[in-house]
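Example record for the data management plan.
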Amino acid sequence: MVESLNREVEYAIKVNSMLNPNDPKPGVMALGDAGIEYRANNGVGFIQIPWENIKLVRAQVMWKNHIRGFYIDLDDSRTINFVASDAIPALKVMREHLGSAKLVRTKTIVGSVSKWWRKRHPKKHSLCCDRI
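Corresponding structural encoding:
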């Protein structure tokens, strides 16, 4: 049996762990005083992340008001993806422990493509004013 990281759980939420995108694992995420814990429903998966090991939390914002889930970037350059039905309360608890500077929005696919397009096709400035 794995010993719990937290002494006190502040918030618990049902999430899917997307360690393997083809096989999401449903489970429960507990946010507590020492970090984040994830336990799979079938008992096979278990993840413990102390607060000091989290480098960044990136929220997946859709349609400006719905948060699908979040990525947790760790200090050893690993990224863990969790999908939740209601991630806003969990992000509020994370903000209390990590600070608002470590919580950011992920770049959307539209934003990434438009940035790539603008980089590849810069605006051509008109020279009409230089001829006068």
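Summary line stored alongside the record: The beta strands are 9-17, 25-32, 35-40, 46-50, 54-62, 66-74, 79-84, 103-105.
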